[in-house]
């Protein structure tokens, strides 16, 4: 439906955003300024105790400084209540006392048809609930009693029964005035291929109604009473109301519970949700008979930034978790994470709660594992890594998985955590400089000496001055010292990770040092460095046992490399500036470049703030650039 220009602006103006949001939050009146329409509250989209959610009536926007949720009043209705856009517009128009523009005839027809189908499903629910009280439902009532469901539970979850009769529901709905075509379109009945009379879809089943985020009955799920039934659980078919891949069972009550501080738990089925909700875990939902879909995952994240996936502790549950890893990785990032709970083998939530109580379930939830743990388990469990090829295959699989994460910061943390797990698995950090528990002082696990690239002999002393002390020499010296003294890697690791060797061999050596591995390319690069004339001819004044002096040399080398990088970056910015027009900052920029070069070449000298040794060169360089008018862009060819 198209809306006339200015209609939405008028709508937002008439209804202060705080009026709508205020129904979902408790305003912090000490922090808020009501007179100015400036409101603060704990965020309704994620669990927090402080008031980091800000709402501005004058601008008509909200923003959370914790989870970065933001938008206008229509966005809030869609995100918090799961409304479609036009449903949110209708809600807001009712608040404002405004009439919606007349829709086009086709849109009106679709809306009227959906309203009529909703009447069919509501009537079907009432009929199912009545059937649970009949004699035909005695076996179903016995089953529900054995599962611990009393009458208040049956009423709370609106559980019903479909008798084993091909036409009972269809006939009852026809008697209420619904047309057969409407009953079929709502998914309550189906027509046979031969064109005969419509028959009931749900027969001989316990019925669970499925409501959407607006509390409307959009479909049903049915559990068969016959153990030989072709499908134990049967859901409504796809209809104009029901899309099983975009909805969740128990969505509305779960969203309300999460808004009050409960975790969002994702169970496998209807009875799991009911058992957990009755045990106090009211923020529980379930997919509708299929594996979790991308749309369902996004819906979960709109409710909570970190849903807990609770799966049965059998092979099927583990397979479901592993499939979810591949679905979630391309979508994960800050505010969109998952944690996993695998129940004891052979138990579902209902079994666990009955046998060990709600406390046992809560303990499992408190120990929920992050997604990266399941990724690591999937790629390593039951495998042997007794050859370089198998280790390389593991690295390749993990790298490919992590590369699918779109957020750079999240990828970086995944890489760091995988590196830590790899060291723990292979136990291959070289001994030396150990702290408590046999770990190096940097906190990394120790590795055996067999995998070490260290060699005996003195550590070279790299000159602080001289014509050869360029970035390539400094980089080579730093890598050589780390190879000879690997116990120093942990302390320098963050700075080593910022190195970007252009030489492939050096890049391989750096990778080997950081992941505590040994490759052919890395070993060859190490031998090349040891044979380098500039390094080999330097007096070996630091003996291997002098750890303090070796660490000081490594620190000095890394300082000078960073100074060179800073100088290069400064020069690049200066050159970028003079591509436009010459301005007052040009001279200053060149002075900063000269100072950066001065610090890189003479790190042992204090920067006096004077550029005596560079002033003449700088003046000549500036004169050359100005004479050539290099700020003018070259003509296009």
Automatic annotation (TrEMBL):
A single GO molecular function term of this UniProt record: DNA binding
Catalytic activity: ssDNA + n NTP = ssDNA/pppN(pN)n-1 hybrid + (n-1) diphosphate
Cofactor(s) named in the record: Zn(2+)
Co-factor remark: Binds 1 zinc ion per monomer.
Cellular component GO terms held in the UniProt record: cytoplasm; DNA-directed RNA polymerase complex; primosome complex
GO biological process: DNA replication, synthesis of primer
Disordered as annotated region, ranges: 426-456, 592-618
Key words, A-Z: Coiled coil, DNA replication, DNA-binding, DNA-directed RNA polymerase, Magnesium, Metal-binding, Nucleotidyltransferase, Primosome, Transcription, Transferase, Zinc, Zinc-finger
Record flagged with keyword Transferase: yes
Domain of life, source organism: Bacteria
Zinc finger intervals, CHC2-type: 43-67
Ranges where the Toprim domain occurs: 262-346
E.C. designation(s): 2.7.7.101
Pfam annotation, one family: Zn_ribbon_DnaG
Similarity annotation: Belongs to the DnaG primase family.
NCBIfam families per record: dnaG (TIGR01391)
Domain notes: Contains an N-terminal zinc-binding domain, a central core domain that contains the primase activity, and a C-terminal DnaB-binding domain.
Stated role: RNA polymerase that catalyzes the synthesis of short RNA molecules used as primers for DNA polymerase during DNA replication.
Protein name: DNA primase
Gene label: dnaG
């Amino acid at each position: 439906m198209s809306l006339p220009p200015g209609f939405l602006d008028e709508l937002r103006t008439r209804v202060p955003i705080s009026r709508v949001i205020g129904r979902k939050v408790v305003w912090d009146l000490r922090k808020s300024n009501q007179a100015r329409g400036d409101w603060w509250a704990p965020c309704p989209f994620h669990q927090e105790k402080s008031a980091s959610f800000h709402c501005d009536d004058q601008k008509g926007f909200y923003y959370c400084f914790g989870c970065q949720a933001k938008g206008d009043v229509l966005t809030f209705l869609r995100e918090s209540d799961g409304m479609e856009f036009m449903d949110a517009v209708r809600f807001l128009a009712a608040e404002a006392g405004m009439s919606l523009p007349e829709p086009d005839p086709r849109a009106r027809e679709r809306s009227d048809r959906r309203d009529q189908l909703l009447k069919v499903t509501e009537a079907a629910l009432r009929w199912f609930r009545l059937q649970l009280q009949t004699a035909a439902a005695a076996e179903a009532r016995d089953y529900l009693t054995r599962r611990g469901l009393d009458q208040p539970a049956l009423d709370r979850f609106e559980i019903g029964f479909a008798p084993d009769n091909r036409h009972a529901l269809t006939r009852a709905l026809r008697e209420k005035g619904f047309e057969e075509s409407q009953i079929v379109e709502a998914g309550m009945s189906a027509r046979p291929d031969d064109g005969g009379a419509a028959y009931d879809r749900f027969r001989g089943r316990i019925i669970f109604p499925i409501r959407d985020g607006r509390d409307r009955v959009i479909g049903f799920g049915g559990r068969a009473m016959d153990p030989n039934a072709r499908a134990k659980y049967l859901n409504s078919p796809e209809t104009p109301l029901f899309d099983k891949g975009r909805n969740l069972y128990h969505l509305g009550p779960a969203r309300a519970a999460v808004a009050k501080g409960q975790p969002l738990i994702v169970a496998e089925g209807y009875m799991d949700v009911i058992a957990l909700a009755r045990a106090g875990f009211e923020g529980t939902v379930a997919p509708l008979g299929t594996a979790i879909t991308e749309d369902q995952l996004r819906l979960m994240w709109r409710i909570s930034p970190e849903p807990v996936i609770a799966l049965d502790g059998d092979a099927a549950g583990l397979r479901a978790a592993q499939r979810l890893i591949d679905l979630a990785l391309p979508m994960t990032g800050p505010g969109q994470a998952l944690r996993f709970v695998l129940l004891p083998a052979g138990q579902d939530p209902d079994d666990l709660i009955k046998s060990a109580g709600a406390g046992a379930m809560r303990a499992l939830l408190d120990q929920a594992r992050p997604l990266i743990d399941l990724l690591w388990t999937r790629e390593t469990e039951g495998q042997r890594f007794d050859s370089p090829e198998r280790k390389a295959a593991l690295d390749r699989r993990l790298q490919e998985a992590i590369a699918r994460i779109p957020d750079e910061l999240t990828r970086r943390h995944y890489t760091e955590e995988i590196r830590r797990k790899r060291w723990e698995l292979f136990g291959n950090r070289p001994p030396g400089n150990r702290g408590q528990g046999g770990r190096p002082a940097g906190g990394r696990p120790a590795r055996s000496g067999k995998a070490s690239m260290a060699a005996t002999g003195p550590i070279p002393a790299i000159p602080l001055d001289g014509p050869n002390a360029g970035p390539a020499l400094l980089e080579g010296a730093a890598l050589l010292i780390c190879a000879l003294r690997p116990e120093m890697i942990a302390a320098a690791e963050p700075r080593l990770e910022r190195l970007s060797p252009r030489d492939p061999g050096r890049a391989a050596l750096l990778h080997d040092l950081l992941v505590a591995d040994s490759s052919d390319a890395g070993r060859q690069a190490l031998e090349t460095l040891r044979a380098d004339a500039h390094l080999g001819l330097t007096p070996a004044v630091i003996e291997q046992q002098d750890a303090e002096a070796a660490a000081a040399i490594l620190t000095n080398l890394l300082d000078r490399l960073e100074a060179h990088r800073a100088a290069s970056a400064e020069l690049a910015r200066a050159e970028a500036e003079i591509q436009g027009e010459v301005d007052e900052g040009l001279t200053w920029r060149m002075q900063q470049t000269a100072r950066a070069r001065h610090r890189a070449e003479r790190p042992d000298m204090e920067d006096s703030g004077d550029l005596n040794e560079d002033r003449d060169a700088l003046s000549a360089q500036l004169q050359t650039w100005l004479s050539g008018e290099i700020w003018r862009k070259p003509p296009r060819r």
